[in-house]
């Protein structure tokens, strides 16, 4: 999956979780859990070798 599309989907999912939390549909910890998935996504994309970071772009 394209890293930009994946990042946009992640951001949309976090916003949906935050809105559901505001309307008291989800518990409070769900927003924190959704936000803390970003480092997990970064680690997984780094392991796959398709990290899309500024430092990697500068090296090329």
What report would you give on this structure?
By secondary structure, the chain is mainly alpha-helical. Helices cover 75% and strands 0% of the residues. α1 (3-22) packs antiparallel against α2 (29-35). The protein starts with a helix and ends with a helix.
What is the secondary structure topology, with strand pairs?
Layout (H helix, E strand, L loop, with lengths): L2 H20 L6 H7 L1 H12 L5 H6 L1
Total number of beta strands: 0
On the 0 to 100 scale, the average pLDDT is 78
Largest sheet: none
The sequence of SSEs as H and E is HHHH
Please estimate the helix content.
Answer: over 70%
Beta strand %: under 5%
SS class = mainly alpha
First-last Cα distance: 21 Å
Q: Count the helices. How many?
A: 4
Shape: elongated
Radius of gyration: 14 Å
Low-confidence stretches: none
Transmembrane segments: 7-23
Keywords: Membrane, Plasmid, Transmembrane, Transmembrane helix
Can you describe this structure in just a few lines?
The protein is mainly alpha-helical and 60 residues long. It has helices spanning 3-22, 29-35, 37-48, 54-59.
Question: Keywords for this structure?
Answer:
single chain, 60 residues, mainly alpha, 4 helices, 75% helix, plasmid, transmembrane helix
């Amino acid at each position: 999956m394209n890293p930009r599309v994946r990042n946009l989907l992640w951001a949309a999912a976090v916003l949906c979780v935050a809105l559901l939390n505001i309307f008291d549909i989800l518990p409070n910890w769900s927003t924190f859990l959704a936000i803390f998935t970003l480092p997990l996504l970064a680690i997984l994309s780094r392991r796959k070798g398709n990290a899309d970071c500024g430092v990697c772009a500068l090296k090329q």
